[in-house]
Specification:
The protein is mainly beta and 347 residues long. The chain is built from no helices and 28 strands. It starts with a strand and ends with a strand.
């Protein structure tokens, strides 16, 4: 959060007032209030705010807590005391210590956690009482723990902490499609719903629908619903299969359904046929960008002519030489397969 937060100051020695400008995106706010029992009942002595927002650049980003002469409460992060603490994502490995100091021994206090705006998808928040050795899940909008500090620092100090349990959210990839563009490239589209704990999406492709390889990775937007697209600029004209692999913050993965896009049949025209004077003209469209072998065989299967053509060009003039008049076979093939064959007459 850094510069996105501004602590204005305090109205008295007992309370800090903070004005927060939330980062862009969906924010989840947990308020931690320290309540003190006085002659008029429990009243707020101090307070904290934990902000979880997917647009934050780093966990543990926040604003320093102003220290008062009594009834201090702070989040403890890497040796710093924070009044406002910010997290990008929460995992089961995260524990946030709450420090309460300068309390009045023998006085009744309450730690109040207001989670009305802290419904983080896939996260269960717990308050840990290290002295009482209890763990309480924040299942209600407001959770209150009562305690009375004594001279024993274990009864206050770093007694409390926030802990979290995370579960992988069900990811639904809908409206997934793969379409062949006019230039032969393939555009893959998908929409992700219910995906707030993701790191990335990996686009995988296959020529048979079984064995997939990664072709690109894009960062997850981490919003409730988002549209994505990727253009495979190196797609061949053959049938292609695609799927999307979603990687969660905990390392788990989920796959989309397999998306299919039909190949493009190569259109090849050879003329004149019959061939006169050994000159042969070949025109082709929808050939993939690759090298192709053009071979002429006689009736005995003997190779009488061979040349290489480049799929990026569509027109070729070939001289097959002075062949004996009769019937031949012409075969055009790539490294992967035969793309065209025909009978050829030579005058």
């Amino acid at each position: 959060m850094g510069a996105s937060m501004l602590v204005i100051g305090q109205t008295s020695t007992a309370r800090n007032i903070a004005h927060v400008h939330s980062p862009k995106g969906t924010a989840y706010s947990l308020y931690v209030n320290l309540l003190k029992n006085t002659v008029s009942g429990f009243g707020q002595a101090n307070g904290l705010k934990l902000l979880v927002n997917s647009s934050l650049k780093a966990n543990g980003a926040g604003s320093n807590q102003i220290q008062n002469t009594a009834d201090n409460i702070s989040f403890v992060e890497k040796g710093k005391l924070l009044g406002i603490d910010g997290y990008n994502t929460l995992t089961s490995a995260d524990t946030i210590t709450i420090s309460v100091t300068e309390l009045t021994a023998g006085t009744n206090y309450q730690l109040q956690l207001v989670a009305t705006a802290f419904k983080v998808p896939g996260v269960t928040t717990m308050i840990v009482d290290r002295y009482a050795k209890t763990i309480t899940e924040l299942t209600s909008d407001t959770t209150t723990l009562s305690f009375t500090p004594t001279a024993d620092t274990n009864t206050y100090g770093k007694r409390f902490a926030l802990a979290f349990k995370t579960t992988a959210l069900p990811i639904r990839l809908i409206s997934g499609s793969a379409e062949r563009l006019k230039n032969g490239q393939v555009k893959v589209n998908w929409n992700a719903l219910g995906a707030l704990d993701l790191v990335s999406y990996t686009i995988e492709s296959s020529t048979n629908g079984n064995s997939f390889v990664s072709v690109s990775t894009v960062d997850a937007k981490n919003v409730a619903s988002a549209n994505y697209s990727y253009i495979d600029t190196k797609a061949s004209n053959a049938n292609k299969y695609y799927r999307i692999k979603a990687t969660n913050v905990d390392g788990s993965v989920t796959y989309s359904k397999v998306l299919f896009v039909a190949g493009i049949s190569a259109a090849i025209n050879v003329y004149p046929n019959p061939v006169a004077g050994g000159l042969l003209h070949l025109s082709a469209s929808n050939l993939s960008d690759a090298k192709y072998a053009v071979v002429v065989y006689d009736l005995a299967g003997k190779k009488v002519f061979a040349a290489m053509i480049d799929g990026r060009s569509g027109s070729y003039n070939l001289n097959i030489g002075k062949q004996v008049a009769g019937q031949y076979s012409l075969v055009i093939s790539s490294e992967a397969s035969v793309v065209y064959s025909t009978s050829l007459q030579v005058k």
